[in-house]
């Protein structure tokens, strides 16, 4: 817990000009959960509910400097990474974060629902080799888990195998393979941690307004870690937050409206 009595969380992520995903969603989530949110901006996206029309990356030095400057003053109780965009930013973030030991959630954001590529292909090996060994938790959706594990994921058994394979091969302390992209009447996420498996279930909510889903889940886990929760408890509490955020998502725009962590 923070030396100030107020937990401090950081998101290291991209700005969504449409306000639905990325650092915007993370900061809303932190605020809703009573955690002070700080931010290291990696990239600015020109984005709405259906497309990303521009990606403007920050310099790697600017990203590292934001982390260092906040840490030096306020301290950081837990952090997450979201959109890291390119290999130089991944390398700078990994190098900076190795200096500190606060819990780190890595959301290995690769492609947005609109199809935009938020992490270049040549950055994935740097993410795996340099950032994942520092991760307390990595939170891939099933396409990302397939990419990280080299396995095909069709159901729960595959998700369990992939979660273990990701932990064993990358050195991340835990992996949460999310089931939102798999069909079924429930959304089931699988956590592999300390040699054990946990499952987190919620009824599937029928809506197209799911922009920012992964961001809010990983931000909520980060907020609960900043408050001192143990990992499985943090994931359980965050699953409830994302379920309600989807239930009360906002019908805005021509595409996928944003989930609503303020609900
Ligand atoms: N834009 C930014 C800046 C993001 O960080 C993310 C996800 O992390 C997205 C967009 C993707 O949002 P979604 O795939 O939920 O539409």
Q: First CA to last CA: what distance?
A: 26 Å
CATH architecture level-2 label: 3-Layer(aba) Sandwich
- Rg on CA atoms, Å: 17 Å
Order of helices and strands: EHEEHEHEHEHHEEEHH
The parts where pLDDT drops under 50 for at least 5 residues are none
Assess the beta-strand content as a share of residues.
15-25%
Biggest β-sheet description: 6 strands, mixed
What is the fourth-level CATH superfamily?
A: Ribokinase
| Structural domain tally | 1
Computed structural class: alpha/beta
- Are any ligands bound, and if so which? pyridoxal-5'-phosphate
Protein name: Phosphomethylpyrimidine kinase
GO cellular component, one term: cytosol
GO molecular function, one term: hydroxymethylpyrimidine kinase activity
EC number: 2.7.1.49, 2.7.4.7
What's the short version?
This is Phosphomethylpyrimidine kinase. It is built from 8 helices and 9 strands.
Keywords:
263 residues, alpha/beta, UDP-N-acetylmuramoyl-L-alanine:D-glutamate ligase, six-stranded mixed β-sheet, three-stranded antiparallel β-sheet, 8 helices, 9 strands, 38% helix, 21% strand, globular, binds pyridoxal-5'-phosphate, phosphomethylpyrimidine kinase activity, transferase, EC 2.7.1.49
Structure characterization notes:
By secondary structure, this protein is of the alpha/beta class. It has one domain (8-247): UDP-N-acetylmuramoyl-L-alanine:D-glutamate ligase. The chain has helices at residues 22-32, 60-74, 87-97, 124-131, 142-149, 156-170, 213-226, 231-247; strands spanning 8-16, 36-47, 52-57, 78-81, 104-106, 137-138, 174-177, 186-193, 196-203. Helix 2 (60-74) runs parallel beside helix 3 (87-97), helix 5 (142-149) packs across helix 6 (156-170) and helix 7 (213-226) crosses helix 8. The longest helix is centred in the C-terminal third of the chain and has 17 residues, at 231-247. The model has no long low-confidence stretch (mean pLDDT 96). Pyridoxal-5'-phosphate binds at residues 13-14, 16, 21-22, 45, 47, 82-83, 109, 112-113, 118, 211-215, 256.
């Amino acid at each position: 817990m923070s030396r100030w009595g107020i937990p401090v969380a950081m998101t290291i992520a991209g700005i969504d000009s449409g306000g639905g995903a990325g650092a915007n969603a993370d900061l809303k989530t932190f605020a809703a959960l009573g955690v002070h949110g700080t931010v290291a901006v990696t990239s600015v996206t020109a984005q709405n509910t259906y497309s990303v029309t521009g990606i403007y990356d920050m310099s790697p030095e600017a990203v590292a400097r934001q982390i260092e400057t906040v840490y030096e003053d306020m301290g950081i109780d837990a952090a997450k990474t979201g959109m890291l965009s390119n290999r130089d930013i991944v390398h700078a973030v990994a190098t900076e974060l190795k200096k500190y030991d606060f819990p780190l959630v890595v959301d290995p954001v690769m492609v947005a629902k609109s199809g935009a590529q938020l992490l270049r292909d040549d950055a994935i090996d740097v993410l795996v080799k340099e950032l994942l060994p520092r991760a307390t938790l990595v939170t891939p959706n099933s396409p990302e888990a397939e990419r990280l594990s080299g396995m095909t994921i069709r159901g729960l058994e595959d998700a369990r195998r992939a979660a273990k394979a990701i932990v064993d091969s990358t050195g991340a302390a835990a992996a949460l393979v999310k089931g939102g992209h798999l069909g079924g009447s429930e959304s089931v996420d699988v956590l592999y941690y300390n040699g054990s498996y946990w499952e987190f279930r919620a009824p599937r909510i029928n809506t197209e307004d799911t922009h920012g889903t992964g961001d809010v889940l990983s931000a909520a886990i980060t907020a609960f870690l900043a408050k001192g929760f143990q990992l499985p408890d943090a994931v359980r509490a965050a699953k409830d937050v994302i379920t309600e955020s989807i239930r009360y998502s906002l019908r805005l725009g021509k595409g996928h409206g944003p989930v609503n962590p303020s609900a």
